[in-house]
Every structure is written in structure tokens, then in C-alpha cells.
Amino acid sequence: MRQSRLFTKIEKNPPKDEESLNALLLERGGFIHRLMSGVYSYLPLGLLVLKKIEQIIREEMNAVGGQEVLMPALHPLENYIKTGRENISDLFHTALGNGSKFVLGQSHEEVVVPLVQHYAHSYKDLPLAVYQIQTKFRNELRAKSGLFRGREFPMKDMYSFHLTEDDFEKYYDVVKKAYIKIFERAGIGGKTYFTYAAGGTFSKFSHEFQMLTPAGEDTIYTCEKCRIAVNDEIKDVHKNCPECGGALSGPKKAIEVGNIFPLKTKFSGAFGLTVKNEEGKEVPVFMGCYGIGLSRLMGAVAEVCNDQNGLIWPESVAPFSVHLVYLRSDDKNVRAEADKLYEKLTVEGTPVLYDDREDKSAGEKFAESDIIGIPVRAVVSEKTLKSASVELKGRGEKDFKLVKISEIKKYVK
């Protein structure tokens, strides 16, 4: 992508109406734009990051046997009456002109159970896991903290269906490991803990994945030996590590980046979802649900992957692999060589943001490059071309190195 054609611009000053670091960095860098509190547009650079996160999640969900679907965002209120969730505080309610009442989906238990009920009738149809990546709506009283707490946001939610509780527990552990892989691939694995937590409206206990950050809304206590944590809300139950019995370290601030819940038969029972077992007897179906907010994960990466100059995207979720920077020159050959290198890298499959702008100084370009935070910056100038080279610098590094243009593919992906 040529930066001269990018319709968004770097904000010279941080937005005045944002307090969270992730929103300040992402808005200033031209990744997102706030329409109103808790509702954002994802701009070209931001959408590229979001799509990379989406692909990581999709790959890991497919690897554990999840089947991708897309369910409606508009749900009949009567389904929520069946499960007793029609009055939960974060539902958006709406109605048709004829008086029919609906809600906007903040999760999809009330939709996925009738869907599976239509197709699953026998033990032979289980186990089954379906997931979607779709927009969710939550009537947050105080949408705050940038992408951490929104009113409209993209989310991956998966639901699994099992003949026995034992089969569910085995699959639950498989998904837990897949979630750990997702956060490792997204670049925050070292700061993220599998966390024992309260179950909310679903069950007595659940599990979260909490990322350490001073901006966190939650308080956790960690066991470094087991790489697990306990949420402060159940600290009276788990005074020591639930796995090794050792002392817990804390308190520490953290933000939830994912969660998994054992639903048992709460929702399948509400809709009468049963299947015939091998003896031909109708038995209840055990369920689990597994959620990750894509935008929240994007905000979490931005919150911890940065320095005083701007973002430092991990390669796995960066909008581009290389930020190619052309330094303005009276020598037309400099521009020609920069254009040629951009075309070469693009043809070879390297994602490149090419700063081909003629109206920006070297200092302005370098400052904006740091704000955007692409992993590698490659500079083409009169000086570098004297040795048929480019100047390469990692975003988180202080020093640069000269690399022959003919050898640049050894250093970039």
C-alpha cells in the first residue's frame, strides 16, 4: 500500500476525549476512529490488524474441530424468556412496528441451541462445536477504556455440545490449550494467565484469560510455577494455587482477553435439547461456550506493545511486515529505486506500507513510522544507494544496519 494514497492521517496530537493508552495510540496512528463512546470504525491499518487476529483465531478454532457459521444479530425476545435472561442489564431491546420484541445479540446461546436442536438428534451427531466471528452489542452503562469495553464489537464465540459431562471436560481442556496458543501467537502469551474466576450468570465458576497491565479492570493473584491465576472475586475460595497448592503472588492488575464457561445443561434444558443415546434413551446435552473479543484483543496488544514513540506491533498481527520509507531527493533515481524495491517486495509476497510521500521531511516520516509501529523500517535515500543498500531498523531497536538491496529478503518476511 502506498502511504500517499492512504486516506487516513497521523494525528499530530493525542485525542483529547480518550483516556486509555490503547485508544490514544490506535486513534493517533490512524487505526481506529471513535464515532461515540464504545463504538469505533476500523480504518485500513486497523482492519488489517483485526483481520490478522481473526485469522489466528479461525485457524486455532478449526484445529480443534470447530465449524464456522454466521448467526443473526437480531434475536427474538421469547428465546431469552425461555432461558430467564430477558432482563439482564446489558441487552439492547428493540421492537418491530407490529409490536414483536427483539434484542441485539450480546451472546448467542439463545440462537445456537435451537439451531443445533434442528440437526442433532442422536449420540452419533455429537460431539459438535460451532463458532462464529460476528458483531456483538452490549448496553454498557459506561463504555470506557478504549477497545476494552465497547457497546458494539467483533467477537468470536464458540459453543460445544456433548453427550456426557466427561466428554465435555476433555474438550474444554483442548479449547483451553488452543486459547493459550492464540494469545502466544498474538504476542501477549508471556503476560497472559489462565485464570480461575466466578461463573457470572452461567455457572458457579468459569475460567478467564487475563493479561497483566496497569490499565486492567480486574485484580488477580498469580502462580508463576503453574502459569495460572486466581481472580480476586474468588480469592476467598482459592487462597493458594488451585493446581500446586503453592502461595499466590499479588495483587496484580489485569484485563480479561478471553473466557471459557461450562454451561452444563442450563441452555439445552431450557429449549428441551436432547439426543438419543446408544440405548435409545433421550438424554440431556452438555454444553460449553468459549469467547474472545477481537477488538479487545487488538486493544490489549496495543496496550502492552508500545514505547514512548508509539506502537510496536508483533509481526503476527502487524498491518504490514515492512515500512518502506523513501527520503525525498532531487535525484530522481532515488524515487525510482524505492518504487522498484516496493514492487519487488510486493510481488514476492512481503506486505509493505510504502511511504512515497514527497511533502514530508525525513524527521516527520521517521516519527510517523514509529507511531504506526510496523516491525521493520527500510529506508531508501541518496546515502544508502551509494552502496546499493537500504537502512534496516527494527521498530523496538535503537540501531540500524545497512543491507544490500539484493539481500533484503534475508531480513524481512
TrEMBL record:
* CDD domains xref list: ProRS_anticodon_short
Please indicate if the UniProt record lists Chaperone as a keyword. Answer: no
- Supply the SUPFAM superfamilies for this chain: Class II aaRS ABD-related, Class II aaRS and biotin synthetases
> What EC designation does it have?
6.1.1.15
Q: Name one Pfam family in it.
A: tRNA-synt_2b
Q: Give a Gene Ontology cellular component term annotated to this protein.
A: cytosol
Q: Where does the Aminoacyl-transfer RNA synthetases class-II family profile domain start and stop, copy by copy? A: 34-314
Q: Does the keyword Heme apply?
A: no
- Catalytic activities: tRNA(Pro) + L-proline + ATP = L-prolyl-tRNA(Pro) + AMP + diphosphate
Q: Which UniProt keywords apply?
A: Aminoacyl-tRNA synthetase, ATP-binding, Ligase, Nucleotide-binding, Protein biosynthesis
An annotated GO BP: prolyl-tRNA aminoacylation
Offer an example of a GO molecular function term for this protein. ATP binding
Query: Which PANTHER family does the record associate with it?
Result: MITOCHONDRIAL RIBOSOME PROTEIN L39/PROLYL-TRNA LIGASE FAMILY MEMBER (PTHR42753), PROLINE--TRNA LIGASE (PTHR42753:SF2)
> What protein does this entry describe?
Proline--tRNA ligase
